[in-house]
Design goal:
This protein is of the alpha+beta class. Helices cover 24% and strands 18% of the residues. A three-stranded antiparallel sheet has the order 3-4-5, with no helix packed on it. Strands 1-2 form a two-stranded parallel sheet. A hairpin with a 3-residue loop joins strand 3 and strand 4. 16% of the residues are buried.
Length: 160
Amino acid sequence: VGGGDSAAAEAILLARLCKQVYLIHRRDTLRCDRSYLPALEKAENLEFVWNAQVTRLLHETLITGVEVTDRTDGSSRVIPCDGVFVAIGRTPATELVQGVLEMDEGGWLLVDESTRTSIPGVFAAGDLRKKPLRQVITAASDGAVAAAMVQADLNSIEIG
């Protein structure tokens, strides 16, 4: 569910893994970067569901489908499925440091490869920093880098 870069990237990945993928978007065109379009169009098991929004999740013990409502005529239909992935973008949880640490226009923290922020002694790791890939493995890697950098900084401090 979605139409931006996040949804396009996830749909492409899922199309490689799943028998059938439905990309449900509330408009009649995707908002994603055009570079995703060739791969989306090439995926034979990917069906676009335009001008639609998910109005109900169908489930028993597990998900069995979604009900989608057409935004142009109000009609509804059920799409049987085994999973639902909502990819409608990401918002970094950086409100606490807004106006304190340097960030881009989207609110992502600007840090260097050592995870250092614009304030000495403050490090940022994980999915709140600006980076090209946000996955658990990259967040864990950020944590390892930040821990090593903090230790290096602490070892260089003279106490007393």
